[in-house]
């Protein structure tokens, strides 16, 4: 759809976007002329008025909706209207919420966006890989861009694993799993809020939350490293209107798909919030880290990864 130098309107990386949506350090930002849009300072939700204004002003060839650190659902309908108004193609990148979309728990871009892209390894819970979907109108162009455009030999074992993941996604058990992922994220958000932590946008509609550590005088790097020492894995992440470098950041991003796969539910989310709170309230205390490691071991032992270990 694009030639090098064409204008793309995409989500700002530090507001929740992804490197591949036009970050200047990524090929997407080097090849194309990218205009970033962000979230509002007050609501920390996507500013559709800004998206519309920028689209009218810059007339992009492509509009991208979707990111990797948006705790809130994205409504693709207004994006479709904006793209159509300026004659742009709309690409919805649902890499993160694809599993929720498939389970009907997040708005779907299918039938609205010209292209829908996703990974297969995030909420879809399949192998590491990707997928691009489009309607008949763009099918020939897409096929040609994939081969001979970018792809060499396909990885057949990964294709087989994708098929397994998609078959799982058709089952009622998988939908129940996705509902629990969202319920767990909400429970974890509520428990952290109750302990006085600030969440970007005040909560979550999805599988992830973004904690703003700045009111507590911590950086994302400090929090990630302290939680690592306590065997709790999160990643530092920039927050909207970030003032620190991406190597330090003011936030951490936490997701529930993995713990939900182990069978954990709302009570365990409250327990996890308590463990996180204990570490972050006293980040240099090695005795606290050791005690929390014990709590993590106790919790994970009750939810083994493999059924076989119970027999
Ligand atoms: C994860 C993600 C991708 C793909 O990145 P990988 O490094 O291949 O996992 C693309 N777009 C968005 C919005 C993502 O969150």
Give the beta-strand count: 10
Tally of individual helices: 11
Estimate the helix proportion, in percent: 40-55%
From the 3D structure, determine the CATH topology of the largest domain. Aspartate Aminotransferase, domain 2
Largest sheet properties: 6 strands, mixed
Quick check: average pLDDT?
96
What is the CATH C-level name of the largest domain? Answer: Alpha Beta
The separation of the N and C termini measures: 54 Å
* Residue windows where pLDDT falls under 50 for at least 5 positions: none
Morphology: globular
Q: SSE order in H/E notation?
A: EHEHEHEHEEHHHEEHEEHHH
Can you tell me about this structure?
With 311 residues, the protein is of the alpha/beta class. The protein has two domains: 7-168, Aspartate Aminotransferase, domain 2 (3-Layer(aba) Sandwich), CATH 3.40.640; 172-301, Aspartate Aminotransferase, domain 1 (Alpha-Beta Complex), CATH 3.90.1150.10. 42% of the residues lie in helices and 14% in strands. It is globular. Pyridoxal-5'-phosphate is lined by residues 18, 20, 66-68, 93, 95-96, 119. Pyridoxal-5'-phosphate binds at residues 18, 20, 66-68, 93, 95-96, 119.
Features of the shown structure:
single chain; 311 residues; alpha/beta; Aspartate Aminotransferase, domain 2; Aspartate Aminotransferase, domain 1; 2 domains; six-stranded mixed β-sheet; four-stranded antiparallel β-sheet; 11 helices; 42% helix; globular; binds pyridoxal-5'-phosphate
């Amino acid at each position: 759809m694009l030639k090098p130098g064409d204008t793309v309107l995409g989500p700002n990386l530090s507001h929740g976007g992804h490197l591949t949506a036009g970050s200047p350090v990524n090929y997407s930002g080097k090849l194309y002329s990218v205009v970033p849009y962000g979230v509002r300072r007050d609501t920390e939700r996507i500013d559709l008025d800004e998206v519309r204004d920028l689209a009218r002003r810059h007339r992009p060839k492509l509009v991208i909706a979707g990111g990797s650190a948006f705790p809130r659902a994205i409504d693709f309908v207004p994006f479709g209207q904006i793209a159509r108004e300026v004659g742009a193609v709309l690409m919805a990148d649902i890499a993160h919420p694809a599993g929720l979309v498939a389970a009907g728990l997040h708005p779907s871009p299918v039938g609205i966006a010209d292209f829908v892209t996703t990974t297969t390894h995030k909420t879809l819970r399949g192998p590491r890989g990707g997928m691009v979907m489009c309607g008949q109108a763009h099918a020939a162009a897409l096929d040609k861009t994939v081969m001979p455009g970018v792809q060499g030999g396909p990885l057949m074992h990964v294709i087989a694993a994708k098929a397994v993941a998609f078959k799982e996604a058709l089952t009622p058990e998988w939908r129940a799993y996705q509902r629990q992922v969202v319920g767990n994220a909400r429970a974890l958000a509520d428990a952290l809020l109750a302990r006085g932590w600030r969440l970007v946008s005040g909560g979550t509609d999805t599988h992830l939350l973004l904690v703003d550590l700045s009111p507590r005088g911590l950086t994302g790097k400090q929090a990630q490293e302290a939680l690592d020492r306590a065997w709790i894995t999160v990643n530092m992440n920039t927050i909207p209107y970030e003032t620190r470098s991406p190597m330090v950041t003011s936030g951490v991003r936490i997701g529930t798909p993995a713990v939900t796969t182990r069978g954990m539910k709302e009570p365990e989310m409250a327990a996890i919030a308590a463990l996180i709170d204990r570490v972050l309230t006293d980040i240099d205390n090695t005795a606290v880290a050791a005690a929390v490691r014990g709590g993590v071991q106790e919790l994970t032992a009750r939810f083994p990864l493999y059924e076989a270990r119970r027999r």
